Amino acid sequence: MFDLLIFVALPYVALLSLVVGSWVRYRTHAFSYSSLSTQFLEDRWLLWASAPWHAGIIVVLLGHLAAFAVPGWWTAFMATPAFLTVVESVGLLCGWMCLGGLVIFLVRRFVNARLQAVTTLADVLVVLVLMAQVGTGLAVAVNHRWGAAWAPGALGPYLHGVLTLRPDVSVLTDMPPFVKLHIASAWVLLAMFPFTRLVHVLSLPLRYITRAPQRVVWTSSRASVRFEERAATDNERRLFLRAALSAGAGVALLSMGTLDKFFKYFLKQDLTEDEQAHLLSAKLRRLKQTAEERELELERMSRDAILVAPMAELSTTRGKYFIDYQMRPALAFKDAEGLPIVISAKCTHLGCTVGQDVDAQGRILCPCHVSYFDIKTGQPNLGAPAKEALPRLGWALKDGNGKVLLVQDPSGGREGSAEPGQLATSLLYILKRYA
Amino acid sequence: MRPDWLRRGLDYLSERLPVQKMSFESLVTKKVVPVHRMSWAYYMGGLALLFFLIQLVTGVFLLFYYQPTVSDAHASVEYITYYVNSGFLVRNLHTWSSSCMILCLMVHALTTFAMKAFARPREVTWLTGSMLLALTFAFGFTGYLLPWHQIAVNATKVVLQSIEEAGRYLPGALSGLPTYVKEIIQGEASVGQATLSRFYALHVVILPLLFFGVLGLHLLCVQLHGMSQGTDTPARRSEKFFPIFMLKDFWLWGVAFLVVFVLAYCLPFESFYPYPLFEPYDSLGSTPDGIKPEWYFYFIYYPLELLPFWVVMLGQTLGGAALFMTPWIFKNTSRKVLGIIATLVSAYLIVITIFGHDIYEMFKGGGA
């Protein structure tokens, strides 16, 4: 019964009062459509009350309007968490700005003698009801979060019912008290509307934006100069405000598009078990590879001779890469007689690693700057960027028992001998003493 | 009684660093920016600053996941790119914005040169600016190695080796110097863990610290001296720095950020290279085909490929010296001549950067 009174009877009284009252007042007292500005009497506090209040309430009202006018689009937008967060935060911020502004409105009415003289009961009442309205709104926002998402669906049907003369309070019965209070005080506000300074909402001076600036012609030149100066400053300020506003809007848009992405960067990464396993195995592979390289390094520090390969594995057309005593790449081939060719693979030009494939002229290619090196002599082709020959490495051939058969020093001098039969089964080593 | 040289020295300093001008009035209310045909050039430094800020922020972001060891570096970059939320975005922003920063700095240097903005009393501004340019190239060089893929490590090897090459042209005891320098930079016999650690420390701590210091001095000089006139006859119009120019500057920042952001979101920087170059570095394999430095080193890379080494070294040394000595060399040069020089340099940079490879193919194509 009480619900019916507040949510069915009151709305119609309020709407009637709003439409008829405003109409009658406009017809009979058109010039009373004013905010009854007290800026002349006191302007310092007013700035801090009026600016946040109006900035906040305009945003909040537009939000409410959009949510109830196009609930389908609105809820679709709010399905994106980023949008919802932005809308809720902006709404909450604006709500606090409104409340702060209202408090200052009220305080200045009580602490300033000049204002007290012109303050009526209606003025105080308007502020109090507005405070109740904003306060309950904030309470809903804080206690029953994400109103931007749930309100259009939950409260839209009620509002729609009232406007189409088929009021249905059933959706409201289970609403939390703050929501009910918020709706009730809204109707009260609408009812008060035509009888208070609130009517100035209807006299929005939109024409001011487009009308030509007033030209003031001064009789005294000094006054004229001063006026020009002030006009220039004003113009600059307007420009600044406009630019700052667009810059703010730009930053807001940019943040909406970017911040959520950057924020996510720092969250714990959600990986499936497969992905984790894949990552871990890749990492282990890399670690093993590094460990192998380190072992090679250690081996080169501690051993007098290092196995390159069994001679049977070497080929005349494709070199085998290995690491020499200085941890630089080197290549081992087999020549036509089955003896090893062992040369450095570090290009003498700029240190790239020379390729392993031997071309028809018995040369290997450094891909970086196209130098061809003869594998027998190590000499680069004429005109190649590399000027010096690839150094030859000293080597030793050992048989399966570790007996040294043949040794060659870097300059090509040989010691010992090997039968062709032994060659095929022997093992190729590089020696520390030639490093 | 102060000695004469001290007095002259102090006069010189006070003209270059007029700190008495550091007031709200001259820095904010009175500061103006000339409006003329070349006014767009006044935005380039600010733009470079924006890209530096992007580098700073994304760089710090990358630090959260990057691991500077030869076994993990490549894997951690891969992890950032493919597994971290928006990781590809942060990394692409870092690469795109680095290129943008260098581009802006090049344009900035050329335009300030052409506008003779280095002239007395702005020598310190030019000097610090040249240092910032050099530091930025150092950033580019050290940062290139960090992902530890084939092209990164091999290109670094080539560059370090070419330092050693310079030793051949130095006399006697000095001939060992480049090798010594190379080993200091490299930290071990070949490019390896020690090199990676050094480059990491340089890229992440040392260079930024240096950059902050020099940038601070550079900006201070810019603020103290105000915008240079830029033209032979003083511009008829000017606009206030605050708020007009500043807002336009921010507007440009917004647009530039949007462009880089969209690029980073849609297009990995690496898409300009053939893929296998981005496989992890393999110390046992041969150097892959197509090793190249970043595009902003082409102006020195292609000459190195085409001309005798000593010619390039000589040119580079002279060019570098000319860059740093500009305020004194071109003291009495007219803006017209400066403009012509700047145009020629720009033409060279554009041609060698865009057509460098074609020119190389033309002269060296087919090889041997």
Number of strands of chain B: 2
Helix content of chain B: 55-70%
CATH T-level fold name of the largest domain in chain A: Fumarate Reductase Cytochrome B subunit
Task: Specify the CATH class of the domain at 39-283 and 291-296 in chain B.
Answer: Mainly Alpha
Terminal Cα separation of chain B, in Å? Answer: 73 Å
Global morphology of chain A: elongated
Q: On the 0-100 scale, what is the average pLDDT of chain B?
A: 89
Q: Superfamily at the CATH H level of the domain at 39-283 and 291-296 in chain B?
A: Cytochrome Bc1 Complex, Chain C
Output the CATH homologous superfamily of the largest domain in chain A.
Transmembrane di-heme cytochromes, Chain C
Produce the secondary structure layout.
The complex is a heterodimer of chains A (435) and B (368).
Chain A: H1 2-28, H2 44-69, H3 71-78, H4 81-111, H5 113-118, H6 121-143, H7 147-163, H8 170-173, H9 177-192, H10 207-210, H11 221-265, H12 273-302, E1 305-310, E2 320-323, E3 329-334, E4 340-344, E5 363-366, E6 371-374, E7 395-398, E8 404-408, E9 414-416, H13 420-425, E10 427-431
Antiparallel strand pairs in A: 1-10, 2-3, 3-4, 5-6, 7-8, 7-10, 8-9
Helix pairs in contact in A: 1-9, 2-3, 2-4, 3-7, 4-6, 6-9
Chain B: H1 4-16, H2 24-29, E1 32-35, H3 44-63, H4 73-82, H5 87-114, H6 123-145, H7 150-165, H8 177-186, H9 193-225, E2 237-240, H10 241-266, H11 298-306, H12 309-329, H13 335-364
Antiparallel strand pairs in B: 1-2
Helix pairs in contact in B: 3-5, 3-10, 4-5, 5-6, 5-10, 5-13, 6-9, 6-12, 7-8, 11-13
